[in-house]
Amino acid sequence: MDYGFDCPYVIEGEVEQVIEEFGKHTTEEHGIEYSTEALTQFILRQQS
Ligand SMILES: [Zn+2]
After folding, report:
1. Which of 4, 6, 20, 35 is buried deepest, with most CB atoms within 10 A?
2. 3-state helix, strand, coil in the chain (%, to 5)
3. CA of 36 to the centre of ligand 1 (A)
4. Is the Cβ–Cβ distance between 17 and 23 less than 8 Å?
5. CA of 22 to the centre of ligand 1 (A)
């Protein structure tokens, strides 16, 4: 996915699940805690 930084992380599934898992990933792996709203924008942009 392209979220403004280099990250090979890929996740598929229900949007709600993806948001939760991706939020954990960015927090734990990148030290960036995005809001649910920001995460939703990333996911929706990626899927469209
Ligand atoms: Zn990552």
Report:
1. 20
2. 60, 0, 40
3. 16
4. no
5. 8
Q: How far is the CA of 41 from the centre of ligand 1 (A)?
A: 16
Give the distance (Å) from ligand 1 centre to CA of residue 42. 13
- pLDDT of amino acid 4: 58
Q: Report domain extents, the chain.
A: 1-48
CA distances from 42 to 19, 22, 29, 38 (A): 9, 10, 17, 6
- Helix 36-47 to helix 15-25 angle, to the nearest 10 degrees? 120
Q: How far is the CA of 21 from the centre of ligand 1 (A)?
A: 11
